[in-house]
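Support case: phosphoenolpyruvate complex. Customer-provided input:
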Amino acid sequence: VEDLKELVKKFKAAVKAQTGKDFPACAYEQLWGAVCAVFNSWMNERAILYRKMEGIPDEWGTAVSVQAMVFGNMGETSATGVCFSRDAATGEDLFNGEYLINAQGEDVVAGIRTPQQITKVGSQRWAELAGVSEEERVSKYPSMEEAMPEIYKELDALQTKLENHYKDMQDMEFTVQEGKLWFLQTRNGKRTGAAMVKIAMDLLRQGMIDEKTALLRCEPNKLDELLHPIFDTKALKQAQTLTRGLPASPGAACGQIVFFADDAAEWHAAGKKIVMVRIETSPEDLAGMAVAEGILTARGGMTSHAAVVARGMGKCCVSGAGALNIDYKARTVEIDGVLLKEGDYISLNGSTGQVYNGKVETKAAELSGDFAELMNLADKYTQLQVRTNADTPHDAEVARNFGAVGIGLCRTEHMFFEGEKIKAMREMILAEDAEGRRKALSKILPYQQADFKGIFKAMAGFPVTVRLLDPPLHEFVPHDLKGQQEMADAMGVSLQYIQQRVESLCEHNPMLGHRGCRLGNTYPEITQMQTRAILGAALELKKEGVETHPEIMVPLTGILYEFKQQEDVIRGEAAKLFEEVGDSIDFKVGTMIEIPRAALTANRIASSAEFFSFGTNDLTQMTFGYSRDDIASFLPIYLEKKILKVDPFQVLDQNGVGQLVRMATEKGRAIRPDLKCGICGEHGGEPSSVKFCHKVGLNYVSCSPFRVPIARLAAAQAAIEDLN
Ligand code: PEP
Ligand code: MG
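Agent response - structure generated as follows:
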């Protein structure tokens, strides 16, 4: 009491010093002060960041509920806690949570005291992880089920009732005041991607929700968490375990240790992978957590700030690892005799709570049965097909395993980035005339054909759209003296010649320069070689009994005749090849629609093109007039000033660019009703853009392999929302 009296004096003095006024003695004035403080807190930086992370629109206001207070700190018959009707990390159908006797809610979530488990099962699991004996557990850290059996029964019955009512996993807060249970709040609980899928499928199997609801309950972008790597089991066997904490948020993380949020941001910006190590986290650490691979804390339970925030972000987190001895000043952490410094590598397993010394190799995620079931369910409702953007057999295989039904974009220029291939490519670009280019192209042909064969094989039975070369040429030529000399030697020409060619290839606006079909139209021998490589690979596979469906795509068309001339070259070369080989194969010739003029004249282009693929990266660039490579210089300010709501290179601008997509699809199909239309820009894997593509009636979206499941779910949701 004496301490409290002293504290009150100090607080009153602090209020006077800060505000210049006495602390109000009137209860109403105090209440209004508190209400205003809540509203004001909604406006501060931390709250703005929180809203951004939670996707809460700025237009939403906040409300303040004024409730009578109950106290969990009124002695041994009082307690407070947080509980979930299912496991928020794994989705397991198991009531769980944490509580503290003689405490207030803040004590549980702040991570200052490590709370005890509510259920006996949970408590036993915790003891096993923490290395606490059963005897010690029962005497020092009993579960609520054991310590307050009557209250526990009431709590358990209520949590079941609430979940049955809301038909979703509940996150509840309660207080016990002198033996009486009070519920403070309940809400649908935040969960990891894995828990989201498991809970939706379990609720469906338990008959609580129907198929469509199960699909709509899952947030497409959250599937991403399930697709992240886990530790390689072999590497794990050799890894040195340092300690074990609580498995607060699943996944594997490996990175360099940092202790402060500012450093985290700085190191991340420098391209480093980092793990944030803290005694406990507070909201000031949010920015650091957002860029970290994982978070490790010495204190705090499963409902601590670090754990809840990490789960929301889908980040790996190990909390309450009591063996951590952190010295912020020295920037070191000592764990059972092992001293680690800032910058040292550490690895975390957020699913088991294990902490490892050094780097532990990771491997691709293993997808659970529930995930596959959800994906099958999605296919039942979806109308859009999902293809992938892939330039290697490996990427094609990954995407196929994720359910891609074809390749929507194979960027052939990406096949030239390595070793001998880049040399041959450089030779082709640096050649003076068609003769020199042909010579270089004959070296490239076998590489290309072998690459296409691998890709077609990985996608056997499905269509593969191969795009003809679309590189800004200057990207491929050597800009350093050593590289230039190397090319001079290889081509038997002078260094000066190479330097002159490199200079003459330099463009002021390379993205609007000599690329796309402008290249194929000025150097048709490139188109001839690529046609030969694509169809030659398909013919070889035909002999091996592998089914292929090649689609040859002309990039950056803006004028019908640009396309027509390329089409003539392609069909002419194909006829020659088929005659030489004495065999043939079906193939399609279509175009990218990525220049506004192509969209505006889509009916003319569709008179020749057999399919359209919307290149919304370039279409966005040219519709907005924003350079896709330079937008970073003004985008942050545009977003801050709300001139733009989102980055149009990530989320399709439905009002502008989207209208071009819609119009071109309609115009094209007016001439050619069976015109196959798809999208292969980055937007093909972004949920709101996928939904737009469904509305416009495209046949497919194509996205990077790891976004395929996200696009599949978004496509199904679009179809269901249509039905509803
Ligand atoms: C596009 O422009 O959307 C596209 C897919 O092509 P790239 O990104 O290769 O220009
Ligand atoms: Mg493009």
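The chain is about 45% helix and 15% strand.

Case will auto-close in a few days if no follow-up is received.
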